[in-house]
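__Protein archive entry__

___
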Amino acid sequence: MSVGPVDERSLDWNDARERFRRHFRSSFPRWGADEHEELASKAVVRLLRALRSRPALHLHGLISKIAGDEESDAIRGWRRRTARNVALDDRVEPPTPEPAIECEAEDPLTRQRWLLLTYFERRDARCLDVARRLLAGETLRAIAECEGRSHDALRQQWHRCVVALRGAIAPGDPLWDWIHERE
């Protein structure tokens, strides 16, 4: 890319598009090439609009800024689409209550483990795998490394799981104390 002010006529558009693609591939490695290309196209349009308003003195900085803005918009859009797809339709009838399940174990620790796994099995499947692995003696750090996730992300997910479970269990219950120890 050239040195000095850059306008839309002097810009190497293929190079700019490739820079955007590289940025989005590194930011969203699990997304497909089509999604990366779509984001790069949107970013190129933003770059064109910015260069039409005034020439860029620092093109690399402008490309980084636009890529970051487009990345933020993509994440916001993904969250909105996900929330829209999860929303319940008004015409759907409410689910029937689940039948009660009894645990026949006498050992309090076995009963607590059973209760924890049953709760997550019925209410929050995202937490079930983490709960099983924690009960098997693994640490959050080891689980995160195995899944290729950051420790902080998994810790925050587990915290949300525990908060949901706490809301369902009354203080003073033996499981309440056990949950506070595991967090």
